[in-house]
């Protein structure tokens, strides 16, 4: 039946172990090393990404703070400019009102003087008017 040959079995056993050794050293070890390196690279990249995310959130917070400060300064400058413009406008309005009041007072004084002149001229001409009126009435 089946004849077992111990020399051949030993030879096959030696070839099997030598093939196992060669595959281990040439294929399995480099493959395992490559997979470990890849896992380490992925872990390192994830760690760097997390650090950058933390760093970017810190930078975003700092940028938001700078923007808020700039907006506050811009509002303060705008308020200051508005108040200065209002004060300037009020002073101009006030000076113009004083000028107009002085002009109005002078005009009223002139008008009153003219009224007095007219009254005095009319009172001076009153006898002439009376005479003219009497002569017209008497001629009728």
**C-alpha end-to-end distance:** 185 Å
- The chain-level mean pLDDT equals 92
Structural class: mainly alpha
How many distinct helices? Answer: 1
Q: Which runs of at least 5 residues are low in confidence (pLDDT < 50)?
A: none
Provide the succession of SSEs: H
Summarize, please:
The protein has 140 residues and is an all-alpha fold. The protein has one helix at 6-139.
What does this structure look like?
The chain is mostly helical and 140 residues long. Helix content is 96%, strand content 0%. The protein contains one helix and no strands. The longest helix has 134 residues, at 6-139.
Descriptive labels:
140 residues; mainly alpha
What is the secondary structure topology, with strand pairs?
Layout: H1 6-139
């Amino acid at each position: 039946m089946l004849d077992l040959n111990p020399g051949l079995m030993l030879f096959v056993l030696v070839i099997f172990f030598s093939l196992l050794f060669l595959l281990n050293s040439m294929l399995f070890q480099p493959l395992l090393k490559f997979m470990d390196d890849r896992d380490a690279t992925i872990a390192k990249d994830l760690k760097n990404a997390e650090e950058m995310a933390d760093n970017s959130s810190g930078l975003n917070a700092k940028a938001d703070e700078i923007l808020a400060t700039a907006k506050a300064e811009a509002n303060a400058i705008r308020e200051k400019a508005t108040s200065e413009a209002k004060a300037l406008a009020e002073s101009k309005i006030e000076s113009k009102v004083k000028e107009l009041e002085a002009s109005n007072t002078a005009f009223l004084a002139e008008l009153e003087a003219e009224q007095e002149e007219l009254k005095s001229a009319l009172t001076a001409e009153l006898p002439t008017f009376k005479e003219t009126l009497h002569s017209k009435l008497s001629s009728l």
